[in-house]
Every structure is written in C-alpha cells, then in structure tokens.
C-alpha cells in the first residue's frame, strides 16, 4: 500500500488525475448554478440594455433558484463593462446583457489608433431578447413637428442642432449618422456615458434631439414631454403607430435596430451555455411578468438563440462596422 502522498504522485504520473479533475468539472456543471450569477450592463441605469436586463434577470431567478443581480458597469460607451465580461472567469456566473454596439466598439478602438479592450470572439452569443428600431425624439417645446421641418432647419443652420448618444460609435451615434448621411445634414454630436443619461439630457433641455430605443422614450412621449419624428424600422413601431418610418419619408437606406442579447465568456463550457439558453428560452416564451414588463416598456420580446442568433449577430455586426468605418476617426 502506498501512502496517500505516494498514491497521488503515482496517479499523476499515470495521467489519472486529469480524469479526476474532469469528473469534478462535470459534477460542478451538473450542479450549476450553485450561487448567484450576475448580469452585467455596460451602461448606466435607464437605457435600453437596463430595460431588458432587469425583468430578464428577475425571471431567470425564478428558473435558476438563485439570485441574478444586475450590475451596471458603465464607461467608455460600453467598452469597460463588455471587456470585464470578456475577461471574466468562464464559469457561467458572469453574463453580459449587450446591445448591438458590442460588435462595433472594438472597430472604433482600432479607428482611434488604440488596441481593442476586447474582441467579439472572446464572447459567446447565447440569446437575443429584444430587437427594436430606434426612434428620433425631440422635446415637445422644439420648433420641429415633422422630420421635414427638422431637416430643413438643420440645413439652414449646419452644426447648430445637437443630438446625444451613449458615446462615440455607440448604437445611438451610428443610427443618427445613417440619418444625417442620407439627409445631407450636419448635427453637433454630444456623447454621454449611456442612453439613460442622454435621455435625461434631452428631457432637461441640454440636447435638441436623440435617437433612442423605443422603450425608454415611450413613457415620455405618452406624457407629452417628447415628440417622435421618425423611426429607423422597416415597419412602424408598436406604441408609435402614428410615427412614420424614415423609409416612408424618403430615406430608403436608413434602417437600424437596437437589440439586446445575453453573452458569456467564450470559454464557458457548452453545457453551461446551454443551461443559460434553455432558461432564457423558457422565460421569454412563458414568463408573463417578463413579457408584460418588456411590452409596457415598448420593447417586446424578439427571441433568437443558437445558430439563428449567431448568424444575426455576425451579419448585424458586419453592417454596423461598415457604418463606423464611414464615420471615421472622431476627435
């Protein structure tokens, strides 16, 4: 009989310890989740990612039987929070509720001459939760009642009308760049640290206009504080049925969507990724509280997962990267 230390050494020498470790890993995956799994939002509270994350996390708690706290980690237009998940331990306990800017930000870093803080291949797409066209909103006290009036005034006063965004090269920046390019107008870009602060800036009178997700903007439109002039979708948005699309208004190439989706570190075991996917599929299909919350926010469920979401993410990212390259370097 070998003493315990000798037995361990002998097992290691014969290559049996890796099998034991593998078995332990399998057991850990079978028990997953055994503790809270946090959901990172790379923007401040109040923006589109936050609107999607909070009811989704609450629904997941009912499936996982564990807490799913939402942690806002803003900075650099979404780069800091996204990079933190890309570098997180691949154990399934750190997920990202991302927006479509996720694939754009690394390219924007390259354009600015910086090494990207993360790359998209460091993150695994798990499931899409929502997909909403953005909507152009202005304060009700602004002089423009239609898109035509807004564009005409912008042409008379190049660079005088401001618009906000969640940061340079963010989804809100790219969406507005599509419109200004199509309309041939020059607006003054004012970047914020997220869509929530940008919306606050619009409501407080700091900004003249904003490309917003429909969810955050809808309550203020209903209350009469904001006016919508157009939307970036191919079809009109629920809750904004009287607001024509830009395609209807003569801008056929101005089409853009803010989508929200859950990502995990790329090295997360396939079994744990599938556990997340199964849970998200379940809550998006059958959790009435989640669906009511997103419907009330004007951002209904538009679920995708698996190869369908991977293909959507790849194609959408390629289109947005081309738009960012057209914007070029921002001083």
TrEMBL record:
Keywords: Signal. It comes from Teichococcus vastitatis. CDD domains: PBP2_Bug_TTT. This is Tripartite tricarboxylate transporter substrate binding protein. Residues 1-23 form the signal peptide. Belongs to the UPF0065 (bug) family.
